[in-house]
């Protein structure tokens, strides 16, 4: 895939895009170009449609990957990878955010802890996140809160990231 970010150094990278924009495939290609690594999955197979999405992602990955499923304790999961010498892909932040909201966690504290973790890690991390704030304002309070929280989360992760890529129609656009 053209225009891949380079993972020569530790730090965060953020890959943003809408649904089916190619963000996960791009992020996977970045990690595979670095020789493989850890796939930290935040989704849970709670219905048939999500099961199918998860299977599609798994089928795309080869033996260069070790998968960790962690829907809530993302900071803890990343800390467990210190010293292992491989990059990590977190797919995706917006599902993680949904999980936190469902459990009524302190969203700001969780995001801030994830941002602060960047200085403690000895490996690069590529985060995948949905860009959800480019459409109409949702008609219900929960959806508006989610859009607001996702926008703030993406801004905070982007601020501490070395690179930010926006995916549109399968094409990477370098933002940072």
Report the mean per-residue pLDDT as an integer.
92
Widest sheet, order of strands: 3-2-4-5-1-6-7
Q: Classify the oligomer.
A: single chain
Helix content: 25-40%
Could you give a short account of the major beta sheet? 7 strands, mixed
- The CATH superfamily label reads P-loop containing nucleotide triphosphate hydrolases
How many E strands?
Answer: 7
Please give the CATH class.
Answer: Alpha Beta
CATH topology: Rossmann fold
Give a verbal description of the structure.
A seven-stranded mixed beta sheet has the order 3-2-4-5-1-6-7. The relative contact order is 0.24. It is α/β, with parallel strands linked by helices. It contains six helices and seven strands; from the N terminus they run E-H-E-H-E-H-E-H-H-E-H-E-E. Helix 4 (93-102) packs across helix 6 and helix 5 (107-116) runs parallel beside helix 6. It has one domain (11-174): P-loop containing nucleotide triphosphate hydrolases (Rossmann fold), CATH 3.40.50.300.
Quick recap of the structure?
This protein has 176 residues and is of the alpha/beta class. The chain has helices at residues 23-33, 48-60, 74-79, 93-102, 107-116, 141-160; strands at residues 11-17, 37-41, 65-69, 88-91, 124-130, 161-168, 171-174.
Layout of strands and helices, then pairs:
Blueprint lengths: L10 E7 L5 H11 L3 E5 L6 H13 L4 E5 L4 H6 L8 E4 L1 H10 L4 H10 L7 E7 L10 H20 E8 L2 E4 L2
Helix pairs in contact: 4-6, 5-6
């Amino acid at each position: 895939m053209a225009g891949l970010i380079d993972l020569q150094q530790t730090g965060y990278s953020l890959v943003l895009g809408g649904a089916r924009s190619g963000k996960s495939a791009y992020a996977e290609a970045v990690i595979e170009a670095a020789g493989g690594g850890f796939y930290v999955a935040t989704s849970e197979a709670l219905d048939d449609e999500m099961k199918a999405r998860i299977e599609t992602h798994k089928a795309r990955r080869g033996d260069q990957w070790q998968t960790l499923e962690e829907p809530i304790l993302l900071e803890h999961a990343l800390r467990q990878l210190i010293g292992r010498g491989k990059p990590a892909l977190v797919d995706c932040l917006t599902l993680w955010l949904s999980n936190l909201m469902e459990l009524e966690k302190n969203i700001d504290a969780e995001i801030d802890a994830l941002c602060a973790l960047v200085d403690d890690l000895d490996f690069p991390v590529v985060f995948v996140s949905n860009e959800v704030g480019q459409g109409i304002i949702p008609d219900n309070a929960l959806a508006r809160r989610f859009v607001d929280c996702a926008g703030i989360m993406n801004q905070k992760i982007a601020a501490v990231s070395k690179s930010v890529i926006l995916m549109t129609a399968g094409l990477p656009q370098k933002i940072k």
